[in-house]
């Protein structure tokens, strides 16, 4: 179009950021941090390949990663391509569904050498994601950002590559499943058992109920301005409890508890039988 | 000066050598959060098929540090592919060494379903690993428990006395009595510690949502858990059947043994009376033992390993059910309390 009008126009391709987004799994962050901690002496940053898949809604799901050794000196970047391919093959043997979706680098934002590496990954996969993880906490927080590269061209001539930031979903449902208590601290002496975990959850729940309770009290006494939305949430929550008469409710709970107690009894008796059988078995004298 | 230091040096080297002979017992397994995540990812993605992988790390005194791991592809029953598996393992180790990952195998991990892991294969794998690595552990993860908000990770090793016995392959009742070994002593569970580098800790603190309720809490407070219990009881019943088959084997063995002994006794009686009459007639007595006689052929005692493992497995199921039900009971008991609290807040709102 630009050529037909005999004018040179600086073309900005359509923005990806509205359609493209990425989701990072906690494992990737862990992996990158571990690689950074184990980086060679003289290296300033580590880079590596991101594996994952593109979800049906266009979100790039980054699920795995591995570091790739590289060398950077005065504007030149040497990437161990053999290493990259070997490890890719190995990873695909385990999980063929995970393909290259981009690459990562530690550090804040995009640096000079990044464009070259990005070029390499563009040949592996169309439109790769570039993830940067600021392991140095340079602006006081661990910034994690994702970019895609957009080619700027002047007329037909490619001018430069522009890195455009794309929204990144950092919600970590998997990490929540395991528990931040285990993943956050530098040392956990013991994995919480079923009951301890339950206790923590129960405490949290009770704290939440207390919060609601306090809020309702405050509203009733006129300390806080009532909020209809919150009120509706509370009434929905309360309404979701089945309305049962106390005796019926007690019966329901008690029946269930009794069932479980029966099971408990059964399994205990099996255990006793087992230890008894073991004694008899080893103590059995040859007649 | 030099004269005095040399002997002490020599002694200290000797002392070091002497102390190295007896390695301190393994007290804890320290896993990096990264490894936990990796194991969980691998086990969960390929669940319900069971998967394995290698653990890499360092052996530091009484603590075994697991600092990295990599998954194995699902093995197929084919020799060619098996060779490829070994190649894969070497390749992976080589690659990881290049990025400065600890290049020392300390064991392996595997997934299990509903706590079912005590198999002869596991013990065989253990013995294989044990040949090369003095101290190895097996980390077992149960993806089926994750939906209930439980992190079901276990670190196991075989007990020393069991390994001795397994090497001599002698699982007769007599030997077991001698060693005083029961099914409880096959596996030793080692407490797990989780460690994270300061960097990861910082990132996680940064990234943690400030929502008061996490996915874990939702999962834990689920009340419908009967499927899990049902499966457990089902497995328990299956095990019970297996155990009774094993018991029948033993009964058969003992019946045969007693029959044989009766036959031997009868034969001896006959021989003795014969000898008496020969003595009376002034002839040489016949020997009181006859190895060629089929009556004296020893009957092979069946191995008790299988029944041990089954018993162990059953005890495991029982423990699981017990722990689970107690947990559930607490939930159910707390339910009326919550109900009451919420009702109360409802009435407050109504006022």
Annotated CATH topology of the largest domain in chain B: Cytidine Deaminase, domain 2
Strand content of chain A: 15-25%
What is the subunit arrangement here?
heterodimer
The global form of chain A is: extended
- SS-derived structural category of chain A: alpha/beta
Estimated helix fraction of chain A: 40-55%
How many domains of chain B? 2
SS elements, strand count of chain A: 12
Task: List the helices and strands of chain B in order.
Answer: HEHEEHEHEHEHHEEHHHH
What do these coordinates show?
The complex is a heterodimer of chains A (287) and B (351). With 287 residues, chain A is α/β, with parallel strands linked by helices. Chain A has three domains: 10-176, Cytidine Deaminase, domain 2; 192-241, no CATH class; 245-282. Chain A is 44% helix and 24% strand. Chain A contains eight helices and twelve strands. In chain A, strands 1, 2, 3, 4, 7, 8, 9, 10 and 11 form a nine-stranded mixed β-sheet that branches. Chain B has 351 residues and is an alpha/beta fold. Chain B folds into two domains: 25-222, 3-Layer(aba) Sandwich (Cytidine Deaminase, domain 2), CATH 3.40.140; 238-350. Chain B is 58% helix and 14% strand. Chain B is built from eleven helices and eight strands. An eight-stranded mixed β-sheet of chain B has the order 7-6-5-4-2-3-1-8. In chain B, strand 4 (105-111), helix 4 and strand 5 (137-141) form a beta-alpha-beta unit. In chain B, helix 10 (226-280) packs antiparallel against helix 11 (305-350). Chain B is elongated. Chain B starts with a helix and ends with a helix.
């Amino acid at each position: 179009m630009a050529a037909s009008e005999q004018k040179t126009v600086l073309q900005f391709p359509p923005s990806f950021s509205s359609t493209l987004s990425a989701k990072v799994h906690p494992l990737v962050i862990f992996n990158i941090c571990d690689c950074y901690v184990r980086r060679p002496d003289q290296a300033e940053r580590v880079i590596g390949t991101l594996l994952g898949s593109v979800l049906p809604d266009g979100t790039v799901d980054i699920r795995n990663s591995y570091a790739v050794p590289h060398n950077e000196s005065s504007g030149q970047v040497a990437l161990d391509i053999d290493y990259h391919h070997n490890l890719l093959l190995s990873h695909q043997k385990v999980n063929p569904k995970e393909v290259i979706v981009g690459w990562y680098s530690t550090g804040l934002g995009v640096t000079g050498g990044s464009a070259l590496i990005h070029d390499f990954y563009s040949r592996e996969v169309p439109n790769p994601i570039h993830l940067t993880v600021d392991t140095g906490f340079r602006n006081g927080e661990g910034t994690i950002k994702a970019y895609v590269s957009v080619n700027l061209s002047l007329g037909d001539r490619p001018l430069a590559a522009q890195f455009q930031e794309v929204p990144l979903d950092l919600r970590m449902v998997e990490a929540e499943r395991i528990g931040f208590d285990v993943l956050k601290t530098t040392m956990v002496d013991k994995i919480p058992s079923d009951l301890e975990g339950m206790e923590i959850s129960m405490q949290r729940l009770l704290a939440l109920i207390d919060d609601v309770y306090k809020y309702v009290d405050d509203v009733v006494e006129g300390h806080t301005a009532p909020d209809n939305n919150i009120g509706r949430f509370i009434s929905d929550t309360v309404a979701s409890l089945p309305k049962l008469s106390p005796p019926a409710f007690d019966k329901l709970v008690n029946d269930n508890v009794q069932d479980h107690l029966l099971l408990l009894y059964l399994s205990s008796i099996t255990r006793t039988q087992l230890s008894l059988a073991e004694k008899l078995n080893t103590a059995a004298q040859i007649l | 000066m030099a004269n005095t230091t040399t002997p002490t040096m020599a002694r200290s080297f000797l002392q070091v050598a002497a102390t190295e002979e007896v390695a301190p017992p393994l007290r804890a397994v320290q896993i990096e959060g990264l490894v936990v995540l990796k194991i969980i990812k691998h086990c969960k993605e390929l669940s319900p098929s069971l998967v394995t992988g290698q653990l890499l790390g360092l052996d530091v005194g009484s603590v075994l540090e697991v600092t990295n791991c990599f998954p194995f592809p699902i093995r197929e029953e084919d020799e060619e592919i098996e060779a490829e598996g070994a190649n894969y393992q070497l390749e992976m180790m080589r690659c990881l060494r290049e990025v400065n990952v600890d290049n020392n195998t300390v064991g392996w991990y595997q997934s299990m379903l509903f706590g079912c892991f005590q198999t002869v294969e596991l013990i065989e794998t253990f013995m294989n690993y044990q040949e090369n690595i003095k101290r190895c552990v097996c980390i077992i993860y149960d993806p089926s428990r994750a939906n209930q908000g439980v992190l079901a990770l276990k670190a196991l090793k075989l007990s020393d006395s069991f390994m001795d016995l397994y090497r001599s392959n002698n699982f007769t009742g007599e030997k077991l009595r001698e060693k005083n070994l029961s099914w409880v002593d096959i596996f030793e569970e080692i407490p797990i510690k989780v460690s994270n580098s300061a960097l990861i800790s910082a990132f996680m603190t940064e990234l943690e949502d400030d929502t008061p309720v996490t996915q874990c809490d939702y999962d834990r407070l689920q009340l419908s858990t009967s499927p899990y219990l049902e499966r457990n009881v089902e497995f328990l019943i299956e095990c019970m059947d297996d155990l009774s088959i094993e018991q029948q084997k033993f009964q058969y063995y003992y019946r045969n043994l007693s029959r044989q002994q009766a036959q031997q006794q009868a034969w001896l009686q006959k021989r003795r009376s014969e000898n008496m009459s020969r003595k009376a007639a002034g002839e040489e007595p016949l020997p009181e033992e006859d190895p060629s006689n089929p009556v004296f052929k020893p009957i092979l005692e069946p191995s008790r390993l299988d029944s041990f493992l089954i018993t162990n497995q059953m005890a495991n199921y029982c423990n699981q059910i017990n722990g689970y039900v107690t947990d559930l009971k607490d939930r159910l008991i707390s339910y009326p309390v919550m109900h009451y609290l919420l009702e109360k807040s409802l009435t407050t709102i109504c006022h």
